């Protein structure tokens, strides 16, 4: 990934934080059928490998499985908040007019060699953990055990498990760090008017660099 120094993010806890907050990621493989990509929800286990272990499941009928079983390196792309930035928010616009629009975003790319798992116990645990994590904001959380056991067992037969120990990981937080302070404050105010989550990311990184 193109990573100008101002936008580079290497802190593992920050990278894992984005992955947990935005678990639906693009799984990319290259196999005999060429490049393939699927959106898959992942869990990140920070202690499962030196840089973290990704866990997921996918349909047994998914034709990406052939590439995953071959053991070639896979790439997983996590996309955080993103937002268009208009030059109208920049104080510099009124001073020089030498400004252009841009797009702010935060993203994490992870690489590793996939492992396919078919253990019923592993699948039941992974599906349960993913469900519990996804349901935690609900007033009355649904659990896998709420469904009839024969139905759950039948559903499990249609999926396989996936683990990817992260061998390499990169993060990019493009959140206006390359702009003067007054421009960054303008972006924070502009995004704040619509309560866009990118506004808080810009403000957070602005506070870090101002301390």
From TrEMBL:
Gene3D superfamilies attached to this UniProt entry: Electron Transport, Fmn-binding Protein, Chain A
- List the signal peptide residues: none
- Top-level taxon: Bacteria
Which InterPro entries does the UniProt record give?
A: Split_barrel_FMN-bd, TR_PAI2-type
Specify the protein name. FMN-binding negative transcriptional regulator
Q: Which organism is it from?
A: Kaistia nematophila
